[in-house]
Amino acid sequence: MSNLDRRPPARELGGLAGTPAGPVLDLLPGKEVLLGESTRVRRLLPTLGRRLVGAWAFVDHYGPDDISSFPGMQVPPHPHTGLQTVSWLLEGEVHHRDSLGSDARIRPKELALMTAGHGIAHSEQSPAVHPRYLHGAQLWVALPEAARETAPDFAHHPSLPGFTSDGLTATVLMGGLGGATSPGIAHTPLVGADLDLAAGADVELSLEPDFEYALLASSGSAGVEDAPLEVGAMLYLGTGRRRVRVRAAEPARLLLLGGEPFEERIVMWWNFVGRSGEEIIEYAQAWNAEDERFGAVVGHDGDRLEAPPLPPVPLKARGRVR
């Protein structure tokens, strides 16, 4: 999904200065953001006080929205560099097309993993005939220096591994958890898992102490250790945990994100991840000039998104946290 903000702030992320040396329970409320003319999302990353969780650099949670009388998601062709997009649906269907020629219908509990690398363009649209509700999360993973210029790629995994325990049904999107390992290729140590909790569930999850973690409540509410977590909010757990206890009095869906703290410093603006402001300017100009770096989205009939105006001041380093 594109960041449709026409005045996106520039951010420098990465480094270990903002990573706690132990467990915390920091609540990160979602910030409502208007994308385009009608789509509203809750932005969890980057947000005030937290810019990264491992290599997870961008988290938008949207819906559930009743789109029975609306076209639903309609994101025209747009570019990406230096990151992976992880699309995760709880309800609905999204049609993905990209400049590699990929053409896929993404449905709930399926992984759509796009690696931008050197550069790619894609579009995402609800089909003309679509389910009533649209609900999901759009996630970006920053690529490390060794992988950020890799050739672009798209992978669609209709079936994902998981496990059940004490009222929990877990599906592993990225990395590994509870003995299950995702087929999605990651370029840094990380994990992403959907946690489907039945009413009365009470479970302990085993964690990697070298990872930092966060939990997003996609639906329902839960208790995480001693902290409440309400729908649309994220709870940052810090590092140094070997386990975390999660309880749900009502049915709930949580998204667990984690990974080794991302040491490299990166600049993120609009849909690009680079290492300097000069690189970001180069990407934006190349996209607006229809440079072959990004190619053309095969099968899309319509206009593409232009890059927003660049900031009037040089991109400024701000670190992992504000």
UniProtKB/TrEMBL annotation:
<dbReference type="InterPro" id="IPR014710">
    <property type="entry name" value="RmlC-like_jellyroll"/>
</dbReference>
<dbReference type="Pfam" id="PF02678">
    <property type="entry name" value="Pirin"/>
</dbReference>
<feature type="binding site">
    <location>
        <position position="122"/>
    </location>
    <ligand>
        <name>Fe cation</name>
    </ligand>
</feature>
<dbReference type="GO" id="GO:0046872">
    <property type="term" value="F:metal ion binding"/>
</dbReference>
<feature type="domain" description="Pirin N-terminal">
    <location>
        <begin position="40"/>
        <end position="141"/>
    </location>
</feature>
<feature type="domain" description="Pirin C-terminal">
    <location>
        <begin position="193"/>
        <end position="290"/>
    </location>
</feature>
<feature type="binding site">
    <location>
        <position position="124"/>
    </location>
    <ligand>
        <name>Fe cation</name>
    </ligand>
</feature>
<feature type="binding site">
    <location>
        <position position="78"/>
    </location>
    <ligand>
        <name>Fe cation</name>
    </ligand>
</feature>
<dbReference type="InterPro" id="IPR012093">
    <property type="entry name" value="Pirin"/>
</dbReference>
<dbReference type="InterPro" id="IPR011051">
    <property type="entry name" value="RmlC_Cupin_sf"/>
</dbReference>
<protein>
    <submittedName>
        <fullName>Pirin domain protein</fullName>
    </submittedName>
</protein>
<keyword id="KW-0479">Metal-binding</keyword>
<dbReference type="InterPro" id="IPR008778">
    <property type="entry name" value="Pirin_C_dom"/>
</dbReference>
<feature type="binding site">
    <location>
        <position position="80"/>
    </location>
    <ligand>
        <name>Fe cation</name>
    </ligand>
</feature>
<dbReference type="InterPro" id="IPR003829">
    <property type="entry name" value="Pirin_N_dom"/>
</dbReference>
<dbReference type="Pfam" id="PF05726">
    <property type="entry name" value="Pirin_C"/>
</dbReference>
<comment type="similarity">
    <text>Belongs to the pirin family.</text>
</comment>
<keyword id="KW-0408">Iron</keyword>
